[in-house]
Amino acid sequence: MPDPITLIFRTAAGTETRVSASPGQSVMEAAVMNGVAGIEGECGGCLSCATCHVFAPEGLGTPGPDEDAMLDCTEVERGPRSRLSCQIAVTAAMDGAVFDIPAAE
């Protein structure tokens, strides 16, 4: 069994929550399974709700066309690092990565 990967979720207020994730799991699944506030994942990762919006670390790729369209529907205005966490697969290289959770307006 591979070593767990630590992901860090940081709120706009600066509070950090560290969670363990497994390779291949989505960042949203790791957040929801660990009760991270601000990551709802209402659609379960089907790319239809935009309730898992995060500001991802640099270097995690760019949104595909469907994700890009859904990012226009987020509660908080998108930024250059905006991603839907359901579309980011956890990899070992992400150990210690910080995902910023946008402040609800």
Task: Write up what this structure looks like.
Helix content is 13%, strand content 21%. The N and C termini lie far apart (41 Å). 30% of the residues are buried. A hairpin with a 5-residue loop joins strand 1 (5-10) and strand 2. The chain has 105 residues and is α+β, with helices and mostly antiparallel strands. The radius of gyration is 12 Å and the shape is globular. The mean pLDDT is 92.
- Which outline best applies? globular
Query: What is the beta-strand fraction?
Result: 15-25%
Number of helices: 2
Ends apart, CA distance between termini? 41 Å
Percent helix, as a range, is 10-25%
Low-confidence segments, given as residue ranges, are: none
Report on the biggest sheet. 3 strands, mixed
Which whole number gives the mean pLDDT? Answer: 92
Rg (C-alpha, Å): 12 Å
The tally of beta strands, per DSSP, is: 5
Provide the succession of SSEs: EEHEHEE
| Alpha-beta classification | alpha+beta
Strand order within the widest beta sheet: 2-1-5
Features:
105 residues, alpha+beta, 3-stranded mixed sheet, two-stranded antiparallel ribbon, 2 helices
Q: Which SSEs are present, and which pair or pack?
A:
Blueprint: E1 5-10, E2 16-21, H1 27-33, E3 53-55, H2 65-71, E4 82-84, E5 97-100
Concise overview:
By secondary structure, the chain is α+β, with helices and mostly antiparallel strands. The protein has helices at residues 27-33, 65-71, and strands at 5-10, 16-21, 53-55, 82-84, 97-100.
